[in-house]
Structure formats: structure tokens, C-alpha cells
Amino acid sequence: MNVEELSGLPPGALEHFREMGIESLYPPQAEAVEAGILEGESLVAAVPTASGKTMIAALAMLSAVERGATGSSGGKALYIVPLRALASEKRAEFDAYGEFGVTVGVATGNYESTSDWLATKDIIVATSEKVDSLVRNGAEWLTDLTCVVADEVHLIDDASRGPTLEVTLAKLRHLNPALQVVALSATVGNAGEIADWLDAALVHSTWRPIDLRTGVHYGNSLEFGDGTTREVPVEGAERQEAALVRDILAEGGSSLVFVNSRRNAEAAAARLSGVADRELVNVERTELAALADEIREVSDAETSDDLATCVESGAAFHHAGLAAEHRSLVEEAFRERLLKVICATPTLAAGVNTPARRVVVRDWRRFDPSAGGMAPLSVLEVHQMMGRAGRPGLDPYGEAVLLAKGHDEREELFERYVWAEPDPVRSKLAAEPALRTHVLATVASGFARTRQGLLEFLDETLYATQTTETGRLETVADGVIEYLVSNDFIEREREGADEDGDADGGDGAFTSAADLAARSSRTERLRATGLGHTVSRLYLDPMSAAEIVHGLEAAAERPTALGCYHLVSRTPDMYQLYLRSGEDETYGELYYERERELLGDAPSEFESARFEDWLAALKTGKLLADWASETDEDRLTERYGIGPGDLRGKVDTAEWLLGAAESLAAEIDSEWTVAVREARARVEHGVREDLLELVGVRGVGRKRARALAAVGIETPADLREADKGLVLGALRGEKTAETILENAGREDPSMEGVEARYPADDGEVVLETDREREASDGAERTDADPDESQSNLGDF
Ligand code: ADP
Predict the structure, then answer these.
(1) Which atom, in ligand 1's list, is nearest to the CA of 23?
(2) pLDDT tens, residue by residue, 142-201
(3) Residues 132, 137, 143, 147, CA torsion sign
(4) Of 153, 287, 415, 675, which is least packed with CB atoms within 10 Å of its CB?
(5) For 414-449, what is each residue's pLDDT tens digit?
(6) pLDDT category of residue 762 using cuts at 50, 70 and 90
(7) Is the CB of 3 under 6 A from ligand 1?
(8) What pLDDT, on a 0 to 100 scale, did the predictor assign at position 520?
């Protein structure tokens, strides 16, 4: 089907597709059009990775917007992404629709807002968590939606995030029963079941734009599922993956190597950089060196440096511990074929468009805490990684390879992955943490006002269509209602129960206690309390909120920053750091030292699992406290064995949880609101109390603030009046100093002709030239506490 044959799209859209190199539709796209996506029909598209699912979504969204523009009702589309990182990628892609007047917005930011400005946008991109929070906060524009796309809908199977996606889709359909739902999925075993649930047509296809050959490497040979083989000899002590990368590089192809942990990704990249390096030509070396410099500038942590070192040799690692800028630099250089090999954890397989001629799935098992050991990856995960093989138009075909060490393993890998049918998607909604959150939200936002109404709403979920166990959802839901009532998040109102009882009594019929209970629970009204509403709007797991509320109520004196950080770190909403071996002792000692600061009752040492959790929270809390005491980033990543991206993640989560804690404190009239607010501000900026005012000036981060404070400039008012030479000496860079003075509201921020000055030990101010002489005499300052000195060393 040619794009010219498509009707109902905004004028200019076809032009845009042609410019993108899309002349005719891929077969699954044509099937989707035949199924009616241009006319508002719902659809589940279960299609392999990289087979043009985004185009299916685009056709549905654009025709919905166009129908709205020409009709009376107004058209508006929502694109739900599984990861925040993908939101900006999709926005960048859809932004081009601006050429023909279709506007795009990304719903990000905190979970409390309704983002009303989005009401004017035609297409909105958001994560399922964000959409869920918009529903909870009653964003009115949600009822205007005419089309919703759920990307990677198979993630409904994911225990931690799947239930939110599932409930969100159910709620959006509940709000607007005529809504067009387009669910994009990898090939899964039960796409038909998902289509039934969504009342949607189904396009189920195994078609790919480029041939994919999947197989297993064992010994010196690579054998494919279609029976063909290719010799890939392993030389001497060489590893299999190195032989495979070298082999494909010799014919100009790049590789993606998937491993099971961040550490393994880094180690493998370091080793494979030797292989890549041999094939580089001089211009590539120059470009790679420039890329390495850019990478080093992103952050001062060791990971940044390690990555840059690999990149100089044409290799890279990629995992969720990297900063977002690192990831996008690496992805782009790989797409431009400058980088020859990336060693990645499976995050890269999830939706990032980085195809390679050869994909090597080196590890097919990974550590699974719930199994207490190594567990095999799911078929879906391995197929997603394999699907990254082959760049349409660039490679003749794609190859995806698993590695076997022995004959039996080779057989097993063929059975388990190469010939395997894809797994089915199973709802995880009945898990308690998921229901806890969603039951409260459903009651608080008025989707259900009675127990019966709640059960009816839950009946609209995929879980309900899949479960064969009668009464299971009801039992779990009752347990959750009980928990929410006992923590004062919802209350029951037994309206009308009495009259029923009287009526029965009048009949003189015998009514058993069980009958009575059943009837009164049917008519039982459920209502969120003020606290419950707050918790739901804040997007907290009710269990996190309960922990925070109890902690604040238990505090007899003003909580310290560490106390606050520990409190939020022990909630289920914070992904805690693990205790490494021997650390239970280290943190056990810290616990006895700082016990008084921790809020609430500690578990007894004899409850070993709970006590260990408590200490793991202490480790996480200490990381946050160190960050808020201005410890350098690279020191923290080293001390806690984490990547710079992890540090960012913890800081962001803590900021959000402490913001929520502040609202909860206000809700329960706690006297510690200010203490919590201050702890939040400190973690947000990574500074001690004395710098909180200075970091409020745009452009002043933790290091610049400390450098300014060191020369006696402690407030924005000081910045407006201080000696400009001193400001320049502290901030270096004239442009920086000027901008900051301007942001602080200084009347004349110009640095023209100003010479940097530094206070000498006796308090006198010295000029740049004098200081250089001192430094060359060896009179550099030394600091007793290295943690304190970073403010003078840091990059700006
Ligand atoms: P998926 O979402 O299925 O993983 P994408 O939608 O990202 O895959 O598509 C992969 C690539 O194929 C993109 O670069 C896209 O521009 C391109 N593409 C999609 N449809 C067509 C088409 N009909 N003709 C040519 N290229 C296409």
C-alpha cells in the first residue's frame, strides 16, 4: 500500500512521511489500515521489534486529530511510553508534525499537577505513571481524548509497573467508552486475549523489514535455526563474544553484546575495546577522541571516565546507571557507525532504536533476588534483544547469536529461545502492592464509591478476563480495603444497611450472620479521607505514606536530615541500595551511633530480614545525607558502588518523597513540616543549610555556591553588592560570572575589565597574578577533610 492511498490524515502528513523515506507501508502497517485505524477503530498490533510500530501509532493519532479538526468534537491523542527516557525520544519524533500544524506536548514533572497547559496540544506523550496521576488529579482534558496509544503493552506482564498501565487503560476507557485504543506489542503468545480485553481488532505478524537469522555459537561454529552454519573460529584464549565481534567487524558490521549486569557490561566493553581498536582508521580516532571528551564533561564520576576510555577505542557500555546524556551520546555515535560495539544490559533492548548487524546475547541468565540465584531470561526479553539485529537498508540481514559452552547447553538454547514460541502476557494486578495503590486511587478519584462498584471496575481489567480462580480478586481487594481503613486512608459508611436489616426482620425470615455481612458489605460505601486523598494525589504507595506518617508522629524532637532521609528510604517507593557483604556490620555500627535520629520503631535485631532492610535504608539515607553535605559525586559513586545515574535516581526519588512527606506533615498537623522542607531542599541541591539561599539563584549549583561562600558571598543580596573581582575569582569564567550576577538581579553585571581576586589567608584580597606566583612556590592550600575541599577542586 502506497502512502498516497491513505486518506483522513492532516494535509502535509503524507509529504512528511515521504521525506522520512516512507513511500509504501510495511505489511503490518497496511493490515492496520485495513483494520480501520484511520477511522477510529481500536487495534492491538503484535509485531516484531523494529517493524514500524510507531508508524501505526502515528496513523491512528494523526487521523484522530484530523477528524477532530474537521468535526465538532475536537480530536486529541495520548501516546503512553513505558520509560521516561522514551518520552523525549518520541516527542522529538512527533515534533516534526508541527510542519503541518499538529502540536505535541510531553507531560512530565511532578505527580501532583494536572498539567492544564496540555489541554491545547493535539498529541501528548506521557509515561503510564504520569497518566495515572493525571487521572487521580482529575485533569479535565483527559475526557477530550479520542485516541490512546499504549507502547510496549506487553509490559503489563511486568510485576512492578504493569498494573499501572493496565489500570490506566481501564480508567481511560471507563472515562470515555468510545475511545480508540491502539496497543503496540512485541510478538506475544496471547495477543488475541489482549485484543478481546480491549475490544480491539488484532494484527499479529512476524514480518520484519530485514531478515533475521537467530542461532547459537558453540566451538568454532555458528549454527542458525534455519540449519545454515558459519565458521567463526575462536583464536587461542579469545572469548566467544570477542571472536563474534571481530568476525563481523572484518566485514564492516557493528555488534551489540547483551550481558546480565552493569559491571559485566563495563568489563566486557573494556575487553572488546581491544577488538574494535584494531579496525579503526585515523579520522575515526579523531572523532572518537572528541566524543570521549564530551563524555568526560557530562559528569566527574569514574564511570564517565571509564566510558570515555572505551569510547576512544570504538567501544562503549550502556546501562541504566549511566547519565541520560551519556546514553544518548553513545546511542547516536553507534547509529552513525562511529562506535563499533556496545555492551549493554537489557535496558537497551527496550525501545531504543540502535540496530546492529550482529547481536550477541552473551548471558541468558541473571541474578534474580526472588529466586535467590541465577534465573533464565524470559523468551520475550531474549527475543527483544535479538530483534535489534539488522539495520534496514544498511545490512544485508541481521544475525542474533546466543553462546553455548557445551553441547547440552547448545541444545537447550535452541529449545528455550531459538525455536521457542513467545510467552503470554499475564496480568500482575492481583499482587498486593499494586492493588493497595490502585484501590485507593480508584476510590479517591470517584471511579468507585462502593465495594461493589470497586469490584465492578476491577472487572474491567485484563486480570479479570484472565483469572480462572473465582473470588481471588475479591479476597485480595477486601484485604486491601481493610489495610486502607486501618491506616485511615479510607472510611466505610454503612449507608442503608439498617433498613435492609429491618425489612428482613419484618419478614421474620432467618438471616445468618454471614448473609448479613455479605449484604452490608455490598451496600457499603467507601470514601477516601483527607489523608487518603492526599496520598492518592501525591502518587505514593499507601504503605509509603503510612510509614512516613507513623515516623513523623513518633518524632519527639526536630528530625535531622539523616532522620528524614532514612524515613523515606525505608518506604517501598524508594529503591534501596543493597548491603554488600560485611556492610551489615558497618551500618550496624552507624545505626547504634545515630539511633536517636531515626524516626519510628526499629525492628529488633532478631527479626533479621526486617533489620537488614532497616540497615539498607540507613545506607541509602546516608548516601543522601552525604550528598546533602556536599560530598563529591565521584567519591559517592565509589563509596557506595553505584553509577552517576543511580545517584541522580536516588536524589530525584528522595526529592519527590520528601515533598510528599511535607504535604503529609501538613495534613496531619505535624510540627516538623519545616524540618522536612529543609531536608528536601538540601537533597534537591546537594548542599548544606548555609547555601540554601545561594542555590536559589539560577546558574548557581552546589560547587559554585560553596566557592562563593568561601569568599564570604553567602546570599543573593551579597551577590548584588560583592566585589566583582571576588565573584570572578570564585566562579572563574567571565561569562558565567556575568550571567549569575544578572540572575541575582545585579544592576550592572558586566565583567568587562574586571580582574579576578582571591582573599589571602590574612583576609586581604590578592590579584590573580600574585596567586599564580604563590601556587608555583608550592604554597597551595591543603584541606584536612577531603570531603570539604571538593568545592575548590570541582569542575564547574
Ligand atoms: P518499532 O517501534 O516497531 O520498534 P520503529 O517504528 O521505530 O519500530 O521503526 C523502525 C524504523 O523503520 C524507523 O527508522 C522508521 O522510520 C522505519 N520505518 C517505519 N515504517 C517504514 C516504512 N513503511 N517504510 C520505510 N521505513 C519505515
Answers:
(1) 24
(2) 989 999 999 999 999 988 889 999 999 999 998 888 999 999 998 888 999 999 999 999
(3) negative
(4) 415
(5) 999 999 988 899 999 888 888 899 999 999 988 899
(6) low
(7) no
(8) 55
Give the Å distance between the CA of 20 and the centre of ligand 1: 10
- Ligand 1 atom nearest to 209, measured from its CA: 12
The residue among 172, 270, 207, 220 whose CA lies nearest residue 51 is 207
Candidate from 1, 19, 20, 22 with most ligand 1 atoms within 8 A of CB, to mutate:
22
Q: How far apart are the C-alpha atoms of 343 and 361, rounded to whole Å?
A: 10
Ligand 1 probe mutation, 353, 354, 384, most atoms within 8 A of CB: 353
3-class DSSP state of 619: helix
CB 361 within 8 A of CB 401: yes
Task: List CB contacts of 638: < 8 A, sequence separation 6 or more.
Answer: 302
CB of 20 shorter than 6 A to ligand 1: yes
pLDDT level of residue 264 (50, 70, 90 thresholds): very high
Q: Cβ contacts of residue 657 below 8 Å, gap of 6+?
A: 540, 544, 548, 568, 571, 573, 574
Tell which residue, 270, 246, 274, 269, has the closest CA to residue 258. 269
C-alpha cell read off for 557:
524532637
pLDDT at residue number 444: 94
Question: What's the pLDDT score for residue 759?
Answer: 81
Nearest to 618 by CA among 555, 551, 660, 562: 562
- Answer whether 454's CB lies under 8 Å from 443's CB: yes
Q: Which residue has the higher pLDDT, 635 or 758?
A: 635
CB distance 339 to 257 below 8 Å: no
In whole angstroms, give the CA distance from residue 45 to residue 33: 11
CB-side neighbour CA atoms (13 Å) of 43: 30
Compute the distance between CA of residue 42 and CA of residue 69 in angstroms, rounded to an integer: 20
**H/E run at residue 46:** strand 43-46
Closest CA to 165 of 187, 132, 195: 132
Distances (CA, A) of 464 to 166, 173, 197, 435: 11, 15, 9, 13
Nearby residues of 280 by Cβ (< 8 Å), 6 or more positions away: 288, 313, 314, 340
Å from CA of 424 to ligand 1 middle: 25
The x, y and z cell numbers of residue 398, run together, are 541481521
Handedness of CA 235, 238, 242, 244 (dihedral sign): positive
Whole-angstrom distance, CA of residue 184 vs CA of residue 30: 15
Residue 289 in grid coordinates: 577522541
Q: What is the rounded average pLDDT for all residues in the chain?
A: 87
The CA angle 340-341-343, to the nearest 5 degrees, is 165
DSSP 529: -
Q: Which residues are registered as beta bridge partners of 359?
A: 256, 400
Any residues with CB less than 8 A from the CB of 7 and at least 6 apart, and which?
38
For ligand 1, whether the C-beta of 55 sits within 6 Å is yes
pLDDT, average across residues 567-577: 92
Alpha carbon nearest to ligand 1 atom 18, residue: 52
Residue in this structure with the C-alpha cell 488475541, named with its chain if needed: 192
Altogether, the residues listed in the chain come to a count of 796
Q: Do 309 and 272 touch, CB atoms closer than 8 A?
A: no
Q: What Cα–Cα distance (Å) separates residue 122 from each residue in 21, 94, 142, 536, 636? A: 24, 11, 12, 28, 43
Q: Is 25 in the pocket of ligand 1 (CB under 6 A)?
A: yes
CA of 25 to the centre of ligand 1 (A): 10
Alpha carbon of 54 to ligand 1 centroid (Å): 7
Query: At 133, is the pLDDT very low, low, confident or very high (cuts 50, 70, 90)?
Result: confident
Ligand 1 pocket check for 794: Cβ under 6 Å: no
d(C-alpha 154, C-alpha 139), whole Å: 26
| Residue appearing with cell numbers 480508584 | 442
Q: Is the CB of 1 under 6 A from ligand 1?
A: no
Reported as a pLDDT band with limits 50, 70 and 90, residue 546 is very high
**Alpha carbon 396 to chain centroid, angstroms:** 34
